[in-house]
Amino acid sequence: MIGTETRTAAGILTLTALRGIGPATAERLAERFALLDGIVEAEPGKLRSVVSAAVAESLHEPAALVNAGEKAQRVLDEAERRGVRVLSVFDTDYPEALRSLSDRPPILFVKGKLPPRRSVACIGTREPSEFGEIVSDRIVEILISANWAIVSGLAIGVDTLSHQAALHHGGRTIAVMAGGLDAIYPRQNAKLADEILDKDGALISEQPFGVPPSPRNLVQRDRLQSGLSVATFVMQTDIKGGSMHTVRYTIQQNRLLFAPVPQGRHAAEPKSQGILAMTQFSATRFADIARAEGDYRRILSERYPNGPVAVPLASKEDYTSMLELLENRLGGDAAQDAPVRPSSPTQMSML
User: Fold this and answer.
1) What CATH class is the domain 114-348?
2) How far apart, in whole angstroms, are the C-alpha atoms of residue 239 and residue 265?
3) Residue ranges per domain, the chain?
4) β-sheet bridge partners, residue 173
5) Are 278 and 257 in contact (CB under 8 A)?
6) Closest by alpha carbon to 64, among 76, 74, 73, 55?
7) Predicted TM-score (pTM) of this structure
8) Is the CATH code 1.10.150 the one for domain 1-82?
9) How many angstroms separate the most distant Cα atoms in the chain?
10) Do 311 and 256 touch, CB atoms closer than 8 A?
């Protein structure tokens, strides 16, 4: 195990199994040392530029590294039994969309087919009203008809609706999980997870087997949903909904943000207030409502000085420009994918 290459999945897993080394530190060590034995033999000064004195000392303990290597191998063995791929950020098939993130996960667990670059995130409240249910199906149908894969989080509510709509309309969908891939959460979506895999989709997580979907991990998961995607579609949410974490990551990652505008009685619903804030308020007012601070507030004020943070979808006429924006953002990668299939007028209808 000492001779293991640090940039492999085995190498990264070994490093993160050591006390005091997190994902980011493991990646920095892998960038500086080609082999694990290079770390063991490194002078203290070279290690101190990456890790603390205590961690540097533990890296020179052969037993600790051997134990960490054995733990990493157990993870790899379980992944093989479960049909899960374990990707290192240094692997060529690691998703390019995630590779560009400053807080990218150095290890990714993938079951199924890797997500295509033509992916968009579709998210929203766990308690959608009639409006959320209708727009989730219709927007996903339009996106699938234009050959976009749907990324969501397998949670109840809009996530489930988006995955189901993608499958119903003959498309691919990817579920980004907040816990390990050994346990589907929530359990009621276990059948849906199987259907996603059967239809060339994927289940993805940065969490090892046995890790539960804690609140912190749920928030961390949100950055991967937007990170894998060209754009995020927020179908319905209130001001304080968990979807606002994905909105923040979407904006910080400079992805496109879209939201259907509720009208009539739907505009008065509590679960629509976040959508109204994104599509109608100025960036300054939105920042106040979202309690944006630091870099997030700065980005909002600089990037959206005169308009809302989300592209509003208020009628069927907005879908043509929506698809054009997606293709333009995808840029040169678009030519490498299948051609866009135009949507029919009936698919473009809204409330």
Assistant:
1) alpha beta
2) 18
3) 1-82, 114-348
4) 150
5) yes
6) 55
7) 0.91
8) yes
9) 69
10) yes
